[in-house]
Amino acid sequence: MTRTPDTHREAINLFEHALALDPQSVEAQSRLAGVLVTNVLAGMAGAPAADLARAETLVNQVLAASPRYGFAHHVKGHVLLALKGWEEAIPEYEAALALNHNLVAALHGLAWCKLYAGSIEEVTPLVEQAIRLSPRDPGIGHCYDLIGTVHLLQSHIDEAVVWLEKARSAMPGVPIFRSHLAAAYAVSGKTERASAELAEARMLRAEDAFSSITEIKAGAPRSLSPKTRALYDATYLAGLRKAGMPEE
Q1: Using CA atoms, how far apart are residues 189 and 195, in angstroms rounded to an integer?
Q2: pLDDT in tens, 222-247
Q3: What are the structural domains, with CATH classification, of the chain?
Q4: For 105-148, what is each residue's pLDDT tens digit?
Q5: Is the Cβ–Cβ distance between 82 and 41 less than 8 Å?
Q6: What is the DSSP string of 148-188?
Q7: pTM here?
């Protein structure tokens, strides 16, 4: 199933119903928290602050009751990542993987943290491992997007476009994929395609997002390493400017 704001809302409603039937279910609590925080990270949450707070409360309850539940550690990592703290998120993802070596989403989350930390050479092997473990995962677009983002930051623009187009095709309803592709198109000189992708990202995302470079910078992780920040400025933000995004 293609993941869109509508399918995310449907999943939230179903997990809310499950939780109403069994308020103590760690599975229902953790799965609901996972959908809420994933929605925030994908830019598809209508009320991101409220959803993130709810996810954090739920996952903390789960870990208090079941501290060795690997999926809950993964969700906690996502919550911390969404709160812009990759340093705090990394131990949670590592705990999740120690408890469940095949937890694909934790591999993906850890890879993002490595990117934010500036350890770019460690990113793609983690994502490739996730793809090998689950090549038909419905969220595989996130893996393609991350590989494409690494290529974009490294100025391997042709490779970036290939992977980011795969991400868009796999999950066309995720706006952040569109913005990454818009930047790659713009850097490669395909300004019309870049503008079209940026317009699509704006249409798909809740609230007034992708409106300016200032807005994008404000949403960046608070602890982004100087190395990664410089690469984002030189490629992603430069591409968005060429695609027509204003500074303010």
Answers
A1: 11
A2: 678 999 999 999 999 999 999 999 99
A3: 1-101 (1.25.40.10), 105-248 (1.25.40.10)
A4: 999 999 999 999 999 999 999 999 999 999 999 889 999 999 99
A5: yes
A6: HHHHHHTT-HHHHHHHHHHHHHH-TT-HHHHHHHHHHHHHT
A7: 0.83
What would the two tokens of residue 127 be? 């994502």
Residue 57 corresponds to which tokens in the numbers above? 């409360």
Sequence letter at residue 19? L
Residue with tokens 């928290």: 33
Read off the amino acid at residue 123. V
